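Same chain as my last thread, 129 residues:
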Amino acid sequence: MACLPLLGGAALFEHYALSRQRLQFRVDAAAEHAANALAEGRSIEAEVRRRLAEVPVLRPGDRVGIESPPASGRFRGWTNAVRVRVGRAWSPPLIPRELADRLPIDVSATAVAVPPGPGHPEPVALRVE
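reply #2:
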């Protein structure tokens, strides 16, 4: 009987980790597609919004940030780099939002567009951080 609170805590932690991982996968894909859009001269913001909407991971109140070129980090100032950030407040399932402490989930991904070259005639986007 004493194990029930531990199991409940483990289940909540697993839900938090899976929520973060799912959001990170979508942000990674959005950054790569935004870098491709940058290389092709298309709108990176429209591409990010489209990719994040494919599998609906965004909720009302989520913060989405797009930087090109990134303002900080290893790829600061690179004109062929795009950073996508998404932040949200996670609240545990089955607990009313008013009663639950909300934990932040902040994920980001940076992708770089590599221009065409030997062996790849099309631009390539690589997720780098």
